[in-house]
Amino acid sequence: MVRYVIVDTGASRSFPGPHPFLERASADGTVTVLLGAGAVAAYRPDPSKAAILVELGTECLGEATGENAGLEGSNTVGFARFRLGDGDPSDLVELVRQPATDPASVEVARAILEEAGLQVSVCSDFAGRILDRLIRPYYNEALTRLDEGLASAADMDLTVKLGLGYPEGPIELLERTGLHHHHDVTKALFETYGTRHYAPARRAVVAKRRAEREAGE
Amino acid sequence: MSEIRTVGVCGAGTMGSGIAIVAARAGYRVVLYDTHEESLERARRQTEGFFGKSVERGKLTREQADAALAASSSTSFLADLAECDIVIEAVFENLEVKRALFGQLDEICPDRTIFASNTSTLSITEIASGCGREDRVVGMHFCLPAQLMKLVEMSPGLNTSEDTFKAAWAFCEAMGQRPVKTKDTPGFVLNYFLVPFNNDVIRLIEAGVAEPADVDRAIKAGLGYKMGPCELLDLIGLDTQVLLCEAFYGVTHDPRCAAPPLLKRMVAAGHLGRKSGRGFFTYDRDAMYGG
Ligand SMILES: NC(=O)c1ccc[n+]([C@@H]2O[C@H](COP(=O)([O-])OP(=O)(O)OC[C@H]3O[C@@H](n4cnc5c(N)ncnc54)[C@H](O)[C@@H]3O)[C@@H](O)[C@H]2O)c1
């Protein structure tokens, strides 16, 4: 079993509560895991490690490691356990590598995550990784089409559940996990991609402004 | 509106044969029409097979299955639809073909007959236009496989009367289906979300963000979907996805709906998905989905 050390850099979106991945950490080891909101800022290269894992939010891994004209890559990988807003984290971890990341480091990272019962999808260092990049335009469209009266929220949700077998419809899911979070993620994606499908939908903007006002009161 | 007893289904392909099963199973008399004898023959075999399995699985009694089979007939003569109270068309996804069919049916069927279209991408209003009974045309979009999926997206065209929509809705419920109301806009709800979403998946793979297996795992484990998008695309058929893109992009001009270059290359290479044994994944050619 690979031994790994967890360095706490602040509140972690990936591991907000107890989890086997946290319990299995050691006091020393060949792998370092930077956990929490400050992980990117706390990152320091250390070629002596088998792997360094950096928790990511909406950042790219390159913000921690630096980039070099497409040749970047080291023993460092990024990771984020997929989670929608205030919802519970899923069992899916997106593991981020750069073009020249050492494959052995990717495999070590994959192994320690899988041993803790998580599932791992490897992806390149793009904004939104796999899931946010794919689902945010869909959620934006659902919100926009709700405004335009394509169908009622209940019918839209029911349609994707019955027709596509999704466990939850887009509107109920965003309401449950916090529309203002959808705003924050799409805003970050929009900054990178610039296409209208990532621009936060009106309902998300409204929710965000209300959340800000309430926080200010 | 008078009661619906006899249901006409036009097109004995993938969807039409499934819709005919749904109606017969619910106790309606069903006339299945197709211009191709082979399609009708295949539909007859599949229907018998399906009801046979329903009995084996205890979903229908032998008597119910026999009654449903006895109530089902098929024909290659359009005139045999003259007694139908509703006709559901599931012919090729082509506006002219559908319009011509409704025009001919208008001359054959009595005034009371409702015309329903199972179109996935065309406008109900445009299909109805000029058929002679625009007020009695309604969108009824079943899901694949129709004999198993309960959802039906129902859309009124601009000229559809409220009575027609209500009667078709009640009929849909009486068949044991679950209708949802949507506007007559391209793709209704399901395809409106699904077609561009699937294109985004293809573009993400083309951009080298992740491999198909990683995308599918992420979607299933992260969101709890039963099927990953690459698996689903292989099932739909990549050639079908191209057709859907063409239909959608032509109407919406939304760049997300345009067929991604990788999709076109895969189709050109004969990687059509399950049906050709290879798409995003490779398959044993003889394996039937869900078999
Ligand atoms: N396949 C799907 O997943 C799906 C799902 C929902 C809706 N639809 C829609 O259902 C319709 C049919 O699709 P399908 O997949 O069953 O197609 P299909 O190609 O399997 O079947 C079409 C059938 O219609 C027959 N046909 C064509 N023109 C005809 C005419 N003028 N008169 C009588 N019969 C005619 C053909 O011989 C063929 O048997 C389309 O409008 C499609 O968009 C398809």
In short:
Chain A is α/β, with parallel strands linked by helices. Chain A contains nine helices and six strands.
Q: Whole-number radius of gyration of chain B?
A: 20 Å
| CA-based shape of chain A | elongated
Distance between the termini of chain B: 42 Å
Mean pLDDT of chain A: 97
Distance between the termini of chain A: 50 Å
Strand order of the largest sheet of chain B: 3-2-1-4-5-6-7-8
Q: Order of strands in the sheet with the most strands of chain A? A: 1-2-3-4-5-6
Description:
The complex is a heterodimer of chains A (217) and B (291). With 217 residues, chain A is α/β, with parallel strands linked by helices. Chain A has a six-stranded mixed β-sheet with strand order 1-2-3-4-5-6. The model of chain A has no long low-confidence stretch (mean pLDDT 97). In chain A, helix 5 crosses helix 8. Helix content of chain A is 42%, strand content 15%. In chain B, helix 4 (95-108) links the parallel strand 4 (86-89) and strand 5 (114-117). An eight-stranded mixed β-sheet of chain B has the order 3-2-1-4-5-6-7-8, with helices on both faces. By secondary structure, chain B is α/β, with parallel strands linked by helices. Helix content of chain B is 46%, strand content 13%. The longest helix of chain B is centred in the N-terminal third of the chain and has 20 residues, at 37-56. The structure holds nicotinamide-adenine-dinucleotide. Residues 10-16, 33-36, 39, 90-93, 97, 101, 118-120, 141-142, 144 of chain B line the site of nicotinamide-adenine-dinucleotide.
SSE diagram, text form:
The complex is a heterodimer of chains A (217) and B (291).
Chain A: E1 4-8, H1 20-23, E2 31-35, H2 39-42, E3 51-55, H3 62-65, E4 76-81, E5 92-97, H4 103-115, E6 119-124, H5 131-147, H6 153-164, H7 170-177, H8 179-193, H9 202-216
Parallel strand pairs in A: 1-2, 2-3, 3-4, 5-6
Antiparallel strand pairs in A: 4-5
Chain B: E1 6-10, H1 14-25, E2 29-33, H2 37-56, H3 62-70, E3 72-75, E4 86-89, H4 95-108, E5 114-117, H5 124-128, E6 137-142, E7 151-156, H6 162-174, E8 178-181, H7 190-206, H8 212-223, H9 229-236, H10 238-252, H11 261-268
Parallel strand pairs in B: 1-2, 1-4, 2-3, 4-5, 5-6, 7-8
Antiparallel strand pairs in B: 6-7
Helix pairs in contact in B: 2-3, 7-10, 9-10, 10-11
Bound molecules: nicotinamide-adenine-dinucleotide.
The site of nicotinamide-adenine-dinucleotide has 24 residues of chain B, from α1, α4 and β6.
Pfam families (chain B): 3HCDH, 3HCDH_N
InterPro entries (chain B): 3-OHacyl-CoA_DH (IPR022694), 3-OHacyl-CoA_DH_NAD-bd (IPR006176), 3HC_DH_C (IPR006108), 6-PGluconate_DH-like_C_sf (IPR008927), 6PGD_dom2 (IPR013328), NAD(P)-bd_dom_sf (IPR036291)
GO molecular function (chain B): 3-hydroxybutyryl-CoA dehydrogenase activity; NAD+ binding
